[in-house]
Write a structure and sequence with these properties.
Order of helices and strands: EHEHEEEHEEEE
Helix content: 10-25%
Number of strands: 9
Largest sheet: 6 strands, mixed
Oligomer: single chain
Bound molecules: inosinic acid, magnesium ion
Structural class: alpha/beta
Strand content: 35-45%
Radius of gyration: 17 Å
Length: 180
């Protein structure tokens, strides 16, 4: 088996859309500060690109949760691998995620973060696969809704590969033929 990656959203399209979403955040948070929570590892590229375009004061913290193994299927198990460094009490918190798929990860994460008494708690995602949802999650900012395909790039991986691609692509698997 070999893999190739087909471009779904080009670097230009992604960057243009991030600018639009950042503009919306700038309007919504005008006069406030925003505390971005990057969900590692997948959210890291999107968090950086988004944060650079936000004009209100930004602080950043990082969290790592695990719900997937090295394959394309959800295990349904969500656990905190790395917790935040700072408290959320009184802060305008915006979670920045790479993709919302079943919604299990964010459902769980928002529940535990809400208990830490932020002034507000919102969610921003680069990608959403609404058809795949099994838990109801309110998404405040979505860059792109995408079909139910396994995507990589811009932080998203397949077996830890392809995170560094500057675009969003779909992994395609091929049976290697004798001549190939
Ligand atoms: P959920 O809990 O099913 O919503 O899964 C969310 C997490 O699954 C994301 O943060 C990703 O790490 C991973 N994931 C879901 N779909 C994809 C995909 O198409 N490509 C890469 N990772 C994915
Ligand atoms: Mg993720």
């Amino acid at each position: 088996m070999s893999e190739t990656v087909r471009v779904l959203l080009s670097e230009e399209e992604v960057n243009r859309r991030i600018m639009e979403v950042a503009d919306q955040i700038n309007r919504d948070y005008a006069g406030k500060e925003v505390h971005l929570i990057c969900v590692l590892k997948g959210g890291v590229f999107f968090t950086c690109e988004l944060a650079k375009r936000i004009q209100v004061p930004v602080s950043l913290d990082f969290m790592s949760v695990s719900s997937y193994g090295d394959d394309t299927k959800s295990s349904g198990v969500v656990r905190i691998v790395k917790d935040l460094d700072q408290p959320l009490e009184g802060k305008e918190v915006l979670i920045v995620e790479d993709i919302i798929d079943s919604g299990r990860t964010l459902y769980y994460l928002m529940d535990i973060l809400r208990k830490r008494n932020p002034a507000s708690l919102h969610l921003c995602t680069l990608l959403d696969k609404p058809e795949r949802r099994v838990r109801d999650v309110k998404v405040d900012y979505t860059c792109f809704n995408i079909p139910d395909e396994f995507v990589v790039g811009y932080g998203l991986d397949y077996a830890q590969k392809y995170r560094n691609l500057p675009y969003i692509g779909v992994v395609e698997f091929h049976e290697d033929s004798e001549e190939a």
